[in-house]
Structures are given as C-alpha cells and as structure tokens.
C-alpha cells in the first residue's frame, strides 16, 4: 500500500477556501495537483445534477415497496411443490406400496399365482432384457414427477406474466 | 397451482403476506429517505449517466434496502449499506443494457443540449466526458469522495472494497481523472 502525500487534506482545504498558501507545494506535488483538479471538477456537481430533479415522495416509495414485498411473498408462498417435495412424495408412495405388498393376503396370493404360472418365463425375459426392465421401472417412477414439474413450471410462467 | 389450506383456513400465501416485514416502519423510513434520497439519486444519475434510469434505480435501491434483513448499528452504517446497494443496482443496470447503451457522455451532453436536463456549464460537460472514461468503480469512488465528501471508510463500504486498499485505488482513479480533465481543458 502506498502512502499518500501527508499534506493532501490541508491542500484540499486551502483550495476550497481559495487560499494560495500551498501554491509552492502544488508546483512540486503531482498528487496534490491531481486531487485539487478532481475536487474542483466534482465540487458542486451534486447540486448541479440535482437541479430540476423531482424525486418521488417517501410515501410513494414506501407504498410501492410494501406492495412489491407482498406480491413477492404471495408468489413465493404460492409457488408449487419443489423438487424435494416431489421426491418425498415418490418415497412415500413407494413405502405405501411396500407395506401393502408385504401385508395384504390377497396381494400375496395374486403374486404367488403370477409367479407360479408366469414366473419362469418372466425371469427369462428379465435376464434377456434387464436394461429394458430397469428403464421401464425408472420411467414409471420418474415420469409422473417429470410431468408434474413441467406443468408447475408452465403454470409458474403463466403466473409471472 | 397448489394452494393448500394449512392452518385455520389460511393458505400458506396468506400467512406469508402477514409475515412480510420490512427493515423499518413507515415513519422511520420517511426520515431515512428524506436524509438520503437526493444524494443517492445524484449518485445513481452520475453512475449511470441517465436521469430517468436513476428514478427507477432509486426505487429499486430503497426496496432492496428495506427487504434486506441486515441489522445496522447506526445511521452511518445504514447509509453505507444503502450506497453499497445503489452501487450494485447501478452495476446490474449497466450489465443489462451494456450492449444496447453503455455509459455515454455524448448521450448526457445531448440531453442537456436538447433541453431535457437543466442548463449546465462547460465545466460540467468536461466532467461528464471525463467520468465517462472511468471504470464504474473509479467513478463511484471519486463521486463519493469529492461530490459527497464521504470518508475513506464510507467509500470502502459503499463500493465493497477493503478499507486498506482504498487509498491506492483512489489515488489511481484520481490520477486518471486529472489526466482526463487536463485533456479536456
Ligand atoms: Zn502533496
């Protein structure tokens, strides 16, 4: 870090009051000369920019902020289910399915009948086309979620318009 | 769209509306706005070179300030954080319109000539041209230092740099602008 000229503040103050006390220093110190030139250019610039500017009343700015905050809160709260909620829903449905499968007698009976009659052929098909089977299961799990995400994204776009 | 009922017949949206909180109440806001709005507007107008855009950005700046959940120790801290927001808001606006309309001295000069803005001196036009040549951060630092009379700590907070780096950044910006002003004379 560099050190600025030790007289800078005094020189600027003198320049502001029209004093010529530091003229000798200014002739030798480029840093102070730059600062005086920049300060002279910017001094009064704020008032000049503000001349003729009509700023909105504080009450208007406040009410607009309130209105926008409420609108954004409504949008945020009404925003449909997030990805996390979709995953939670899928997991819950899987658990329900597993419980029904494990406990329901009629379901077990149907399963036994299917595996008795078709089990051999089914197992052979799975062995030959296991990638297809994995894909089908994945699609069954993912498709409802994907459709839901698409629909909610579209309705979200509609709401923002 | 899901609008499920959650509690006592209220939807989640209703509950969120009740929960909207701004960082201060209306009366405190009025005082804060009266003290700072003109300076912040002038700052935005000079950073962007566009008086109409400054109107919109002023609203945006105060809105972001009100929505921020920052706790401020003093009015000075509140003011510094307002300027930091204004700096970012102006930067965002500049990025959005970077291709369409960069900060342009000629646009501002033309605006004055055709009578849209107030009458300005040659000195002010030189200043506008010089500011246009600076980087946005240099423009912000110099404006705060010499048009607003802000302290180094305030400037560092407003433009988001370390206070220890400010002196050398300010030195370089000042030297560059002095050279530009020298060229304009
Ligand atoms: Zn010096």
Strand order in the largest sheet of chain B: 1-2
What's the pLDDT, averaged over the residues of chain A?
A: 79
- Cα(first) to Cα(last) distance of chain A is 51 Å
Task: Indicate the percent of residues in helices of chain B.
Answer: over 70%
Unreliably modeled segments of chain A: none
Write down the secondary-structure element order of chain A: HHHHHHHH
Can you put this structure into words, describing what you see?
In chain A, 82% of the residues lie in helices and 0% in strands. Chain A has 161 residues and is mainly alpha-helical. Among the domains of chain A are: 8-50, no CATH class; 117-161. The longest helix of chain A is centred in the C-terminal third of the chain and has 31 residues, at 130-160. The radius of gyration of chain A is 38 Å and the shape is elongated. The model of chain A has no long low-confidence stretch (mean pLDDT 79). Chain B has 2 domains: 7-97, RNA polymerase sigma factor, region 2, helix turn helix motif (Rna Polymerase Sigma Factor, Chain: A, Orthogonal Bundle); 118-185, Winged helix-like DNA-binding domain superfamily/Winged helix DNA-binding domain (Arc Repressor Mutant, subunit A, Orthogonal Bundle). Helix content of chain B is 72%, strand content 3%. Chain B has helices at 12-19, 26-48, 51-67, 75-96, 105-113, 122-133, 136-147, 152-159, 163-184, and strands at 5-7, 10-11. Chain B starts with a strand and ends with a helix. Mean pLDDT of chain B is 81; it is low at 1-10 and 13-17. At the A-B interface, helix 3, helix 4, helix 5 and helix 8 of A face helix 1, helix 2, helix 3, helix 6 and helix 7 of B. Bound molecules: zinc ion. Residues 5, 7-8, 11, 25, 29, 31-32 of chain A line the site of zinc ion (ZN).
